[in-house]
Amino acid sequence: METWVPVPNGSGFGVHNLPYGVFSRRGELPRVGVAIGDHVLDLAELAAAGLLADRRWFASGTLNAFMAAGRAVWQATRDRLTTLLTDAAYRDQVEPHLVPLSDAEPRLPFDVADYVDFYSSRDHAANVSQIFRPGGDPLPPNWLHLPIGYHGRAGTVVLSGTPIVRPCGQRRGDDVPVFGPTVKLDVEAEVGFVVGVPSALGRPVPTAGFRDHVFGFVLVNDWSARDIQAWEYQPLGPFLGKSFATSISPWVVPVAALESARTGPPAQNPEPLPYLRTDEPWGLEMTLQIELNGHVVSRPPFARMYWTAPQQLAHATVNGAALRTGDLMASGTVSGPTRHERGSLIELTWDGRDPLVLPDGQRRAYLEDGDTVRIQATAAGPDGAPIGFGEVTGTVLPVIC
Amino acid sequence: METWVPVPNGSGFGVHNLPYGVFSRRGELPRVGVAIGDHVLDLAELAAAGLLADRRWFASGTLNAFMAAGRAVWQATRDRLTTLLTDAAYRDQVEPHLVPLSDAEPRLPFDVADYVDFYSSRDHAANVSQIFRPGGDPLPPNWLHLPIGYHGRAGTVVLSGTPIVRPCGQRRGDDVPVFGPTVKLDVEAEVGFVVGVPSALGRPVPTAGFRDHVFGFVLVNDWSARDIQAWEYQPLGPFLGKSFATSISPWVVPVAALESARTGPPAQNPEPLPYLRTDEPWGLEMTLQIELNGHVVSRPPFARMYWTAPQQLAHATVNGAALRTGDLMASGTVSGPTRHERGSLIELTWDGRDPLVLPDGQRRAYLEDGDTVRIQATAAGPDGAPIGFGEVTGTVLPVIC
What average pLDDT does the segment B46-50 reach? Predict the structure, then answer.
């Protein structure tokens, strides 16, 4: 399948991807678009020109209405876009609605309803256990039985590129806590999925319902202040150590674009309870990449995640909790078994004991003011075509407190 | 100050209260109203009749737009409503817009943005510590230094009266976890405040900013499944043990209605860090009441809460986290020092070891299917007039899983 749109070699935005986002051009209202190569296809204009079925979904500043429309609409839209972008007969009609990515200012792609963060990488959980409790159990006793998760702050989910002001807060001191800017500002490289179709209160969503409810995936950087978190998190979990900002990528990769990437996740032993079992494999062949100030410091492998997205969704609703359009559920830090596959600085530097040395000679235990972090990811597409997730970036700004 | 509206003796909805809510009558769109005695004053009609400045805020299915309008608008509206309801000259114009409460179907009063739950009763925290760790420290080491809190699920905040389906989930078993309906379904009687005016990312809100940002208070029942919670909560806090439902009362009591209730909170020792200090007392003279199947089982005293609402607000934003209109922050379970002042069944029955015996002879360790819980509260108003919070109720429905 070939598109008539020029797609640069190695672009993750080929015709097999077609990720959705929201963008604006100078002086115009935001609208929904689809990334293709170095362009965005303006779906609001395309619909206004009569080339798509429904305009309401796309002349919008968020994806929420389209996400709520459901799987049949998602599939029909994807099929139609594929036709428009591959059949040269449509080129003259469609081409005027392609906007260079460089002219398109991305917006937060959807209004976040609730934000849940999981803890589903076994390597990450084991690393954290070793760092904080050397010689202790490698995993909490519940870890192999359920995908541990908690609610984060939806109101501080921000778009990639938003500056990250170093947070202030309390951390443990000798006698009394110390107040000031965090000295352990960290990243967590994650992959999140976003709910399109809501569910009713009191009605769990089974693992097999994943494709009916979930619209797509984004990259997530769950910025973390480790010192604030360590002091506050007992007994009710992370709060201010996480709630200052969570960044997401602008392009939502549709679930349908990831079919070729699906792979068997690691064997689960003990066997999960029935509500957590899946009929089809939902590991994803996908590699993340973390850059710090332009230097690649890690390539976390997503296929090793122990708990999969459908298991996370089923777990989050097994108590009858309702889903809303825009619910964002993130995987938790993605880490692999080797040092250069770890998805956070606390793991990469072993809580600062073994700092990173960048190629320019700079050393980092945690993030310093002015540092820029960029996370990217690519999944396996059909015929080896890369399915790109774009990127999620952020630069640390200093704070006075 | 007297109102010309008949207000029954002992009503908590006198003219010093004027709580806001959203209601509908058969066949009509929901709109904003104010409770007075046994009536609701229809603010949408009042505004349409030219008796209030702005109609947009009130011909709405939520309070959010009015809450976002800010303190000057809240005060001007409250002043105007007070005039309309006390000056007999307005009686003929206003009286047609009074709806009997029995004809008004309440709605969820505001769209919840983020939901945060604190843990600010020292008696509650000490009880929980004793129940789970007898002989251990009475409080976590951070407890006296910061108001511990965590994010709950905003999407499952429901209106008083919504049936509560008993949640299913995992709980600790002998060898492996057991799956099934919770056998430890509990309540938490709490008082929450709701944010009206948002704040910017990266800009903490000081304790002195409380009145500029917070619109009012509601009652909260933070339903809890203790067995699910106990198994899941390490290390990232409560998740499914809480996320199935949180009920709130229909009427939002304005901050201005609670001026007479303000009192000195318990002495704080050690002295809190500067960002948690307050210039004025923000304890509230207010007593909650919990009924189980019509029998009063507890009267928790709110004035004993260790951490106050302005301290909670300042803490939740000290890391730069932004506020949104509709953010709900709940106090945590309100408990007093004696048995009949405890705000949860886990405390009232000491985790079931000492069941409640109701006057009809029924015994309860935790909630059974069909049980109804009703929480009410009254604060001290001017000249001893009660400021009522209405009620938050819920009945437990059985589940099959």
Answer: 96
Question: Nearest CA of chain B to the CA of A184: how many Å?
Answer: 14
- Residue B108's contacts (CB-CB under 8 Å, 6 or more residues apart) are B22, B62, B157, B158, B159, B248, B250
Q: Quote the CA–CA distance of A103 and B314 in Å, as a whole number.
A: 40
Strand partners, B366: none
| Contacts A–B by Cβ distance under 8 A | 192
The interface pTM score, or ipTM, of the predicted complex is 0.97
Of these residues, A16, A39, A97, A124, which one is catalytic?
A: A124
Tell whether A4 is within 8 A of chain B (Cβ). no
Q: Are A16 and A385 in contact (CB under 8 A)?
A: yes
**Are the CB atoms for B376 and B293 separated by under 8 Å?**
no
Cβ–Cβ contact B178 with A under 8 A: no
Coil vs helix vs strand at A93: helix
- Phi/psi of residue B336, nearest 5 degrees: -110, -175
With beta carbons under 8 A apart, name residues in chain A contacting B332: none
Minimum CA–CA partner of B177 in chain A: A145
Q: Could you tell me the fold of the domain covering A20-107?
A: SH3 type barrels. (2.30.30)
Judge: A150–B321 Cβ closer than 8 Å, yes or no: no
Is A242 in contact with A188 (CB distance < 8 Å)?
no
Token code pair at residue A14: 């080929």
A367 phi and psi angles, rounded to 5 deg: -75, 140
Per the listing, tokens 């889903």 go with A323
Domain B115-397 in the same topology as domain B20-107: no
* Token reading at A22: 């929201």
pLDDT at A132: 84
Residue of A nearest to B125 (CA): A235
Interface contact flag, A320 B168, Cβ < 8 Å: yes
Fold of A115-397: Fumarylacetoacetate hydrolase; domain 2 (3.90.850)
- Residue A374 contacts by C-beta under 8 Å, 6 or more apart in sequence? A290, A291, A294, A391, A392, A393
Three-point CA angle B176, B181, B186, nearest 5°: 110
- Per-window interface: A 207-226 vs B, CB < 8 A: 225
In what helix (H) or strand (E) does residue A309 lie, and over which residues does it extend? helix A309-317
Q: Coil, helix or strand for B218?
A: strand
Please write the tens of the pLDDT for every residue from B163-187. 999 999 999 999 999 999 999 999 9
Q: Where are the domains of chain B?
A: 20-107, 115-397
Other Cβ atoms closer than 10 A to A73: 16
Whether B16 is a known active-site residue: answer no
Question: pLDDT digits over B63-78, tens only?
Answer: 999 999 999 999 999 9
Alpha helices in A233-267 (DSSP H): 240-243
